[in-house]
Design a protein that fits this description.
Blueprint: H1 5-12, E1 18-22, E2 27-31, E3 34-40, E4 45-48, H2 52-61, E5 66-72, E6 75-81, H3 87-101, H4 104-114
Amino acid sequence: MGVSVDEFLEMLKQLPETEQSDGGDWVSLKVRGKGFGYLWEKTETVGLKATIDEQIALVAERPEVFEVQFTIGRFGWVVVHLAKIDADELFELVTEAWCLTAPKRLVDAHEAVHRP
């Protein structure tokens, strides 16, 4: 179990139009200029956009893996400890964060290609 920073960065390549920009101590993750996540390489953590309900559930279920980052509007951002999560679950969470942020047409096109 556990995902390295490099493995996380590879995951992002599967999400169309994902942009990365250096924020100093973190890397900002955006789609079409809107943020859906952050990466702190030094602490090997990721902050991801989620619904408030998802944020509450994740933190309550596994506080050793997830912690509340902040809430704003209808979204609750979650800190994920990369060493304590498996790749499939992390990819699901980062995809959800991307879907909450990307334009509907881009999400629909991505889901049409990646439906099970």
